[in-house]
From TrEMBL:
InterPro entries: ConA-like_dom_sf. Residues 1-21 form the signal peptide. Keywords: Signal. It comes from the Bacteria. It comes from Flavobacterium magnesitis. This is LamG-like jellyroll fold domain-containing protein.
């Protein structure tokens, strides 16, 4: 009788462990994709619209244009929660006459642990800035030496692992640095501006995708 009871307990523990592992795997394998025009068209209680971001036509169909002054979307979503590795991709077109510092996407806390996709505008060009703050340690991957012309469509990717950060533009690696990353646990998402409503983005965005793993360039979204 005692042996049977012990066996039953062990069996229950095994099934519980497998079930939890499967649930974790299922969660970790989920990608998050935002077609930004759909966020605007199909607004829910999770979405707050600032200013007047507008739908415009593009080679990808409807996309959302941000005026660089007061247009943005805030989402009550935190797709990076608990992820040890992830890849954030975006297809967008930066436009002329915007401010120098432009925060396009922020996920996480307002000033605490967070991840941002940003650009810096220099004359008729821009350069990419991937930023992470984790446990009080901040790191930005950016250099003015890697310029790209404005008024064109681009794909950017920011790959984060437990020990490194890497940026890509149109599938080509730009910067890579060692960094000890601790998963972001709290926060939400802003598109078109930093979460504290400064440094607005001027341009259009088609799609944002978050994958719960460090992707290789051949796995990126196609531009």
């Amino acid at each position: 009788m005692k042996i049977t009871s012990v066996f039953t307990v062990l069996l229950f523990m095994v099934f519980s462990f497998v079930s939890k592992a499967q649930s974790k795997d299922a969660l970790s394998n989920k990608k998050k994709e935002w077609i930004v025009a759909s966020l605007l068209e199909n607004k829910t209680e999770q979405t707050t619209i600032l200013g007047n971001p507008t739908m415009v036509q593009s080679p990808y169909g409807n996309v959302v244009a941000f005026n660089g002054i007061d247009d943005a979307l805030f989402l009550k979503e935190m797709p990076l929660k608990g992820l040890e590795s992830f890849t954030v991709e975006m297809i967008f077109k930066p436009e002329s006459n915007g401010v120098f510092e432009q925060r396009i996407l922020q996920i996480g806390e307002i000033t605490g642990d967070r991840m941002l996709l940003e650009i810096r505008v220099v004359d008729d060009n821009w350069y990419f800035d991937g930023f992470v703050a984790s446990k009080g340690v901040k790191l930005a991957l950016a250099t003015e030496e890697l310029l790209h012309p404005l008024e064109k469509w681009y794909h950017v990717a920011f790959v984060v692992t437990p020990n490194s950060l890497t940026t890509f533009v149109n599938g080509k690696q730009e910067l890579h640095k060692d960094y000890t990353f601790n998963p972001i646990q709290e926060g939400q998402t802003s598109i078109g501006v930093r979460m504290n409503k400064v440094t607005w983005f001027k341009g259009a965005i088609y799609k944002i995708q978050i994958s719960p793993e460090a992707l290789k360039p051949n796995q990126f979204l196609r531009l």
